[in-house]
Design a protein that fits this description.
Layout: H1 2-29, H2 35-45, H3 49-60, H4 67-81
């Protein structure tokens, strides 16, 4: 019985720590992008209608651009979906 209690306690501690890490990860991924981080996207949006339209849609929703969206836009551009990228 004591072994079961100790094992349950250890498993509970592990689960709590993992949930804390996951919550921090979600908060970091969905945090707002700073203007400094968005600067390359803004300059690229001047030359690319797709990126510009996406940023306009975010603005119309009256919400900030999320880090997850910024990363996804960069990944989409790096896949070759966009010509003339600043890093090409």
């Amino acid at each position: 019985m004591a072994m079961t209690v100790v094992a349950a306690h250890l498993l509970g501690q592990w689960a709590l720590e993992r949930s804390r890490r996951q919550l921090a990860n979600v908060a970091r991924r969905y945090s707002e992008v700073t203007l400094r981080e968005a600067a390359p996207l803004l300059t690229f949006a001047e030359r690319n209608a797709v990126v510009a339209q996406y940023l306009r849609c975010v603005g119309r929703q009256r919400r900030p651009l999320r880090r997850l969206e910024r990363v996804a836009l960069y990944a989409w551009m790096e896949k070759g979906n966009v010509r003339g990228a600043a890093w090409d």
